[in-house]
Fold:
Amino acid sequence: MVSMKTQTAQVDAITNEDRYQLATYKKMPVVAERGEGVWIYSSTGERFLDLYGGHAVAGTGHCHPHVVAAIRAQTEKLLFYSNLVYSETRARAAEKLVSIAPAALAKAFFCNSGTEANENAMRMARMTTGRENVITFSGGFHGRTADAISATFLGKYREIGRPNVPGHLQAEFGDIDSARAIADQSVAAIVLEPIQSMAGVRMAEVSFYRGLRELCDERGIVLIYDEVQTGVGRTGEWFFAGSDAGDRVVPDIITLAKALGSGIPVGACLVSEEIASHIKENDLGTTFGGGMIAMAAVTATLEAIENDGMLANVREVEAYLRERLKEFEPMVSVRGRGFLLGIEFADKAKPIHEALLEQKIIAGTSSDPNVLRLLPPLCLKREEVDFFVEALALVLNTK
Ligand SMILES: Cc1ncc(COP(=O)(O)O)c(C=O)c1O
Structure:
């Protein structure tokens, strides 16, 4: 039984947020109180299977004990000091992150979010090349600050971000010729989400990634992978960069955020020595980037993924999920990689999203109205897949 007091507290959270917080996203009627692994518990004691991870952030799952312990221990030592001093906690995080990155990416820059990582990556490309223009792709999403939103040719975002930063050019995702046609001597960088998540989990042919690498090498352009979603284990590899799925292509810069701190805000750019050689003191900076709480969270997040064998788990459970979803063919088809999956329905996904919530499952939508997006914690297990598939069968009326 849910007590009157608890019920009142829930109503207050919804009413008060709606009254006192500016509108952002359309919210689900769930008051999240605590989380454990792949589960979120509401203030009324309901339990939800979280296949969305709070916008792909809960990579290690909610409140992973190793991450919580590391954050707690750091809070008792030093909450923050900026990059004006050295810190063992920061040194450890940078070393750990570089150690799992493709060998060519030798240095890290820490900031606070994905959009900031992309802004700094584009800035580094301009500093490296002495050029200004940036090519991004139809359907890509790169953030909401001025330069990043101007690089976002998805839906209405550039319109929201007007006036746009000049020098942003658009090519067609998956079409190397469209990039070749505009990649002239004015272009500093080509930026892409190697798997376009918000656009409905779109992948390109493998030859596209190799083609971009060759194009950038040929014309002295910096290749940037926005791995804000695909990074930190989501595809079953540490990064899409360097993986077989992308023909082992390694860009000059990878940008990261989301799952990197298990919920503590942190972003990063991983860059090659060549890029690093063009960056001088004071070219980049941020007060909070590299702060100790975030750095403790980064190291613990990467260790938790390693210690718990989460990369192998993603690959194994992805295969199981795909197998189980075959039960619904031809009604649905699945795309993406690892735990970045788009389930495409013949019709609108929104009613399915809502019906799943009634079955206590949180999933995501995308800008493709027919695609339901799954971005679960990397520790999702087979029995939780079964729970989802049973619920989906009910919702689709196949049972
Ligand atoms: C691929 C990609 N890049 C960049 C961003 C921006 O990240 P943030 O919201 O942390 O600024 C997002 C956010 O959804 C994203 O999905």
Observations:
- The first helix runs from residue 4 to 20.
